[in-house]
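Hello,

Following up on my earlier ticket. Below are the two sequence lines again, exactly as submitted.
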Amino acid sequence: MNEMSARNVFYMNLLLAVLWAALHADLSVTTAIIGFVLGFLLLSVMHRGYGAAVLGAVGYIFFLGQAIILSSIQVARYVLSPKLRLDQGIVAIPLTARTDLEIAILASSITLTPGTISVDVGRDAAGQRVLYVHNLVMGDADDVRKTIKQDFERRILRVTRGGATA
Amino acid sequence: MTTIEWVITFFILAGALFMLIGAVGIVRFPDVFARMHAAGMATTVGISALLLGAGFFFSDEFLFYRMLVLILLIFATSPISTTALTRAVYHNEPRLRKQLRHDEMAVTIVEEPVKELAGSPPAHTPAAPAPHVAD
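Thanks for your patience. The regenerated structure is below:
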């Protein structure tokens, strides 16, 4: 079981959920979700790292929701403040994320969070892959880099790489 | 009012409020970049709060999950258009990108010759394709 990738185990989990729902007389989404949770409990015991990855993904969804709500309240405050004090700027964020999936999730999460928009992916002078992020109210560029790398990128990598890079 | 009615009221009012604030932001903010933030906030936060309110209102299991799927689809697609629009503005509006206080993306710009003013005879050489060094 451990030689299977976490992604294949996830497909097996979905299959178990469908099976569980199909065995019930009344077909409903809630039944499928219960089946998924039961399958998850079983598979997380059998496969090392799968449980942590799925819990990390669920935790990331909650983290993203919280970040979106908090920063949309912040942007609403900027919109409604009597005198606009915008401080726009584009920051280059060096990427630890490598694969297309990781970069796509990171860029989408940043754009979903009000106040930051990812504009482009490119390479800096040293050949390091960077993500260009536009900020509505920027403050210090290094603070922006640190926040995005620690809050968003670290959590995504924990899910996609199974905690290999902390 | 029952508890569920308070929940529905909260979500619908919050959604409408964020849509309104997004609209106010589009009017008040000075340039395209800032307006993109206001518009993006209205389409994600505003619409998902409205959809959640609708999902609770109809108290139907399948309808509620359908609302969750709709929110997921909006969250998957809306950032793509925001990013594409912002990048198009950045590459095609030198006046706007020079207003930014801090711009670490300027290294990707290949300087073009100054464009002709409107009304002047067409340029001798055709315009170079937009520089774009993303990999």
